[in-house]
Specification:
The complex is a heterooctamer, with four copies of chain A and four copies of chain B. Chain A is of the alpha/beta class. Chain A is built from nine helices and twelve strands. In chain A, helix 3 crosses helix 4, helix 4 runs parallel beside helix 5 and helix 7 packs parallel to helix 9. Chain A starts with a strand and ends in a 23-residue tail after the last helix. By secondary structure, chain B is mainly beta. Chain B is globular and about 35 Å long. The chains are: A alpha/beta, B mainly beta. Chains in contact: A-B, A-C, A-D, A-F, B-C, C-D, C-E, E-F, E-G, E-H, F-G, F-H.
Chain lengths: 256, 65, 256, 65, 256, 256, 65, 65
């Protein structure tokens, strides 16, 4: 896997939110094999300094961080958040979210393209959280994005891939661009399927964090992603309408 | 001087943003800052004067998806 | 996994037919991690003695064999074939197939129940290839079967699971019986999904043998089955209609 | 004596099924046998007489799904 | 439509149970255009004589009745119920139900075939409520059935068609036999789809009776069934992967 | 149905392209019951005057026309085409298409919003051909659109509704806005389903024009749309996992 | 004589099934009958004797799906 | 004068767009016009002068989806 020139072996990007405890989160990251985790920025108070502890925990994991602009609804907000993230996390990477509708966390592709343009000009390496919209994808690439992260279904819904046709069309249309299914997956088979569709990686959070056993689920997803990718590369059979007996018919004994 | 820090009103005496951070016990912390909605890089905190009613945002790493 | 008192670590049963070569088949079995492979009986001639070579190859793999009655359309045929298989393979296990319709390789559940009764009485341990029919399943258990193998879709079709509702109902109805999805799976995510539905194992052949790279596909399925099972045991989240942001909303900076 | 072996007509002199297997070069092979559609266990091959027109099936391990 | 030599214009068979009131039921039957309604037999007491009133109501509707053997779990029960129904309703028709599992109301195809054989020998014209099982279907035809009524999904579930592949295979396998999708449909589009799959008719009850406005829903289903059938006969286009602009490209003005 | 203050009884908008002949097209329009048909503009030559004959034919149908901007890829093209259409067809209505990708005829929602703004300012009443994108929908309404026409699947593909979740979310999000499923439907049940999802109308062309019998298919779609709408209004039952026998269990005879 | 009618115990004096129906006020009704699980056609009700402990089922048309 | 009409080169003598339409036999037709990519309303055709190399588009109603 190659994101903006960074090589990773794992094809799983994992979120760090919603776990029962920081310790469980750390276990999940380890079990998942993820080399990239998503993080955010929140208000810090001198009293609690909660962010400082979190940051120490993440640094100990020895993984690369991908800061997001979660919750940003305007281009301005998203851009400023990205600028602050770059300084704090010391990385040009940003998972760019410009949310247009609350209930579905629907990306605002118009604002997204605009923000991507601004940030790329400032030297950011943008991972846009987008929809399966082919044309918006084209604009994001023109804006300088070298990765696209379409949603599978609404963040945290666990519905899996709501529009397989749309995601297949996106893959077919941009064979060379690293594509990551971001958001909405619920079970390992969803991730395996995304890989079989030719996607390059998967970004998860809720499905792992909200599992009864997050660390075990993280490992399950990690394995499913490897399996799906391996299946994709091994060249699957063509499905057919009719049955075709696997056991040879020739040479069968006549026992009438 | 009355300013707003992370949405809360604060009575604070600080000529610069850097000084404010110090008074807030975050001088050494891994944080980023914004003044009235605009990013202020670490290097410019000293030179950034504060005035009555300014809105400061101070953010640090947090979990995210 | 426990089949008739035999413990296995792997939840994949693999077929031995349709591979480009015996060597590729052997590699696929090894890569898959399968501990049980399906075999059949065919006419042997003194001239070729093809069966003798095949048998030597299988014995070298050190796996357990599950002989099938593939191609049998009557109870009599299936029973006689099972009797011959027991002598040749020296096992009481038999994958019982009584085919009622050629194009879909549709099990004849009526003949199946009858043959299962006869064979159980003769001391066989029957693995019936059946449909998702709940009532036929009940009769097969009454007939003495301690495993059920419903199809996912027609043998060799690669369509995956055609009737998820039916397979879920079967699982819910027989929580204690080892259930194996047999036939029709095409890609690793199909197998992962079967495991997530609570199935105990998967039986495959065509999807592996007809892949461009059978050994790699065998490994992919093996991993997908582990992933699906692990996901099932890790307690997946509940899917929901609406989105739920993973990144905390509280503490977000106001950058207006 | 004319019998059918695996669907093919054979002219063979064999008193028993065991003898037939020998003549067919399969005495030592891992095979199972059926006579006129019924299974004949290995132990009964010696005692199983053949007569004109009998149908013998001789099967061995083969790949299967 | 032809059922055992009886011609009907309507392709909808409607149940008479579960309506808010007999009057609403009567309206629904009229609105649906159904010419055949299903009825059952229940215990009658001299005090209430409830059955007599119901029977008068049905007779006034001037429709043909199809008595069922609902709730029967054994061949004996089903056969005796059919015999009683024939006397009471004065018809050789019977909707034969032999239920093998309560929660899903799953047909017991083994008992069903046996009961169908007995009843056909006694001169009944059997409408078997069955599954999509191809082989059981074959046996039912051998037993003398000239109509088959596979379920779409469990009775009263409103899930629609759970196994489209299975129902398509059944249709393809018996092109000449009148096939009725019986049970499980929830909305008019389910019925239209069944007709587009080449089914000859649809049997409904709950979806109409439990609608907020049963009479209006009855009319909606009646129209949907006509629409689906008409669509089937009008020869639908072939679906394709790619788009094909409907408006001609040729002659487009160049406005650059 | 109300589009920009114009009342129609029919909820079907029909295209006029791709028919075997003008006569068949005219029949199809009549059979469909459509009161609105889509048309386009193409180059006219003094020699053929093909457009003049077509226009006469349409006028004779006595239906309202909705001119499209099919094939336009830029805002400029679309706007100029709309201006010419207004003069020729003497209507403020325009089906606004700004195509961003050829193979899927994918709307360019960014250009679409811009063009919609310009045209609304010039007094047009815009029917935008868009995707299920909630946020783009919001922008289109802000731009002055009082109708939205999301695609079901790519124009002329006949695939039906590729992203039911997305279309449901759009309906739920804009309960008051007239929503038309435009493009991609293949069979009447697709249209019925769209109506059951609460959509107000359906726009079709290829599925009718390319049917073996276009006039019959037009009638079938017309009826399916009425059925789907009636079903929606009649208040469908809630689907459930389990079966619920329709025939009363109480009072069943004991025939053991 | 004690018999069971539609699952309920009844004390009834009736030589035949027909007589029982009359006593139960269903002589004229559109019903079908079964005695101890077997169908008894209308024409045989007169000739069908009842004895202690018999189980009678009397059914009439009812709504159904 | 050489102009382009609907993508085809034309040699035509016409002072105005209206005159061009006449010469092309479309004076009376139900058409709309564009000059060099911009819409020209019917009322402005008389007043619209043509010059060498102009691109005219003349469109009429056509089937559409």
């Amino acid at each position: 896997m190659d994101f903006y020139g960074v090589e990773t072996r794992s094809r799983l990007l994992l979120g760090t939110a919603q776990y029962p405890s920081p310790a469980v989160m750390a276990d999940a990251v380890k079990e998942s094999g993820a080399e990239i985790v998503t993080v955010s920025l929140r208000r810090e108070s001198g009293a609690q300094r909660a962010g400082q502890d979190f940051w120490a925990l993440i640094r100990d994991l020895g993984v690369r961080v991908l800061p997001n602009t979660a919750g940003c609804h305007t281009v301005k907000e998203a851009v400023t958040t990205a600028q602050m993230a770059r300084e704090v996390f010391d990385t040009n990477w940003v998972k760019l979210e410009v949310i247009g509708e609350e209930d579905t966390q629907h990306p605002d592709v118009i604002g997204l393209v605009e923000a991507a343009r601004v940030l790329t000009d400032e030297g950011f390496e943008v991972f846009p959280y987008t929809t399966e919209d082919l044309v918006a994808a084209e604009r994001l690439l023109e804006a300088g994005c070298k990765v696209l992260m379409p949603w599978g279904s609404p963040i945290g819904s666990g519905q899996g891939i709501n529009n397989p046709f749309g995601l297949k069309a996106l893959r077919a249309h941009f064979p060379e661009v690293p594509l990551v299914v971001d958001a909405g997956l619920g079970v390992p088979s969803h991730a395996a399927r995304a890989m079989e569709m030719g996607y390059d990686a998967v970004l998860l959070n809720t499905a792992v964090a909200k599992a009864a056993d997050p660390a075990a689920m993280a490992a399950a997803f990690g394995r499913a992603i490897e399996a799906g990718r391996a299946g994709f590369e091994a060249g699957p059979m063509e499905p057919r309408e009719m049955a075709a007996p696997s056991t040879p018919v020739m040479g069968k004994a006549n026992l009438a | 001087m009355r300013i707003e820090v992370n949405g809360e009103p604060h009575e604070i005496e600080a000529a610069s943003l850097a000084e404010a951070l110090e008074k807030l016990g975050l001088a050494d912390a891994t944080v980023a800052t914004a003044l009235n909605g605009d990013f202020v890089p670490r290097g410019e905190r000293d030179g950034t004067r504060l005035s009555e009613g300014d809105r400061i945002e101070i953010v640090a790493p947090m979990k995210g998806g």
